[in-house]
Amino acid sequence: MYDMLKGLRVVEGAAFIAGPSCGLHLAQMGAEVIRFDAIGGGPDYRRWPVAPNGDSLYWEGLNKGKKSVAIDLGRPEGRELAVAIATAPGDNAGLFLTNYPVKGFLSHEALAAHRADIITVRVMGWADGSPAVDYTINAAVGVPHMTGPADDDRPVNHVLPAWDLLGGAYAAFAMTAALLRRRESGQGAEIRVPLSDLAASSMSHLGSVAEVLNGGDRPRMGNDLFGAFGRDFVTADGRRLIVVAITPRQWSGLVKTLGIGDAVSAIESETGASFAKDEGARFTCRARLFPLFEAAFAKRTASELQPAFDGGGVTWGEYQSLHQAVTQDARLFTANPLFETVRHPSGLSYPTSGPAGTLAGEPRASVGIAPRLGQHTDEILAQVLGLDSGAIGKLHDEGLVA
Question: Of these residues, 72, 164, 232, 378, which one is catalytic?
Answer without folding.
Answer: 164
